[in-house]
Amino acid sequence: MRVWIVFLLCLAGKALSAPTEEEIVVVDPVADEVEVGTNPVQVETGEFDEAIEVVEDVMAENPCLNHHCKKGKVCEVDDSNTPMCVCQDPTTCPEPAGEFEHICGTDNKTYESSCHFFATKCALEGTKKGHKLHLDYIGPCKYIAPCLDNELSEFPLRMRDWLKNVLVTLYERDEDHSLLTEKQKHRVKKIYENDKRLQAGEHSLDLLALDFEKNYNMYIFPVHWQFGQLDQHPIDGYLSHTELSPLRAPLIPMEHCTTNFFTQCDADTDNYISLEEWANCFGIKEQDVDKDLVI
Ligand SMILES: *[C@@H]1O[C@H](CO)[C@@H](O)[C@H](O)[C@H]1NC(C)=O
Ligand SMILES: [Ca+2]
Ligand SMILES: [Ca+2]
């Protein structure tokens, strides 16, 4: 199972600044998509030996136990005891623990939780409305100030610097080699050990721009790496709206140019961001775009 890394920026904190201890959350997306969870039978049975037998019994009886459904769907058995995924009734979703669980949809409607959102989206499956509905950002819908052109051009400067710092932080913390592969570590090591590296912290836009010019090579891998982290469902060299979501959703409430940035990133407006489009958005030159860096 591939480990997914989502950088949830501290909600109270500043977006796209140096990551600190609390801001990096490692999330397993598969667990997020399907409830593999604890078997309730095992939890309720006191005796361990007995539990194993009971689990087997129930598995034989309930074909849903090993049947995974995507977000917004739950498993039900039909008359012939065949498991199938059906849309979840939003009223069966757990009550959200607070406003922070709320979700703003691209319809600018607030949903109580992501469960409520995906259940609603499922019910609209096959309709134009359902096709267009995506999770926009985390938190209740709010007024988002329009992004001005000059602000839009600042966005990649900060984002690039942030990506580089995230990678360096992962490198520093990766004691048990679970966050980065050997190949990735090798590349980040070069950035980490470079004396010319701009240290994490608050930097003026002028300095960020200058650093990008002078230390351009240090930014090539971080931009590719983030693309690879997002291009997962499926791994095809294109980012769909859903694939971009883990990056966009926590960012939008704090960085009001996020949506504009990703919209203009899709230069050919096919609703997917290709590696070439992505690299171009971050100022990586065409000749430096390299599919092999993504893996
Ligand atoms: C979205 O909803 C929020 C809160 O209801 C509102 O303040 C905001 O203006 C809406 N945005 C748009 C683009 O309609
Ligand atoms: Ca993809
Ligand atoms: Ca495109």
Structure description:
The protein is mostly helical and 295 residues long. The chain has 2 domains: 53-133, Wheat Germ Agglutinin (Isolectin 2), domain 1 (2-Layer Sandwich); 149-293, EF-hand (Recoverin, domain 1, Orthogonal Bundle). It contains 12 helices and 9 strands. It has helices at 29-33, 40-44, 48-61, 114-123, 128-132, 149-173, 182-192, 205-214, 217-230, 241-251, 258-265, 275-281; strands at residues 4-6, 25-27, 73-77, 83-87, 103-105, 110-111, 135-138, 238-239, 273-274. The chain has a 3-stranded antiparallel beta sheet with strand order 6-5-7. The protein has a two-stranded antiparallel ribbon with strand order 1-2. Helix 7 (182-192) packs antiparallel against helix 9. The longest helix has 25 residues, at 149-173. The protein is globular, with a radius of gyration of 22 Å. The two termini are 15 Å apart. The model is unreliable at 1-14 and 18-53 (pLDDT under 50). The structure holds 2-acetamido-2-deoxy-beta-D-glucopyranose and calcium ion (2 copies). 2-acetamido-2-deoxy-beta-D-glucopyranose (NAG) binds next to loops.
Strand content: 5-15%
- N-C termini distance: 15 Å
* Topology pattern, helix = H, strand = E: EEHHHEEEEHHEHHHHEHHEH
What is the CATH topology descriptor of the largest domain? Recoverin, domain 1
Largest beta-sheet characterization: 3 strands, antiparallel
CATH architectural label of the largest domain: Orthogonal Bundle
- Distinct small-molecule ligands in the complex: 2-acetamido-2-deoxy-beta-D-glucopyranose, calcium ion
Strand elements, count: 9
Q: What structural class do you assign from the helix and strand content? A: mainly alpha
What is the CATH top level name of the largest domain?
Mainly Alpha
Strands across the major sheet, in which order? 6-5-7
Radius of gyration: 22 Å
- Assign the CATH superfamily of the largest domain: EF-hand
Helix proportion of residues, in percent?
Answer: 40-55%
Shape: globular
Residue runs with pLDDT of under 50 for 5 or more positions: 1-14, 18-53
**Total of domains:** 2
Annotation field: number of helices: 12
**Mean of residue pLDDT?**
83
GO molecular function: calcium ion binding; collagen binding; extracellular matrix binding
Signal peptide: 1-17
Family: Belongs to the SPARC family.
Protein name: SPARC
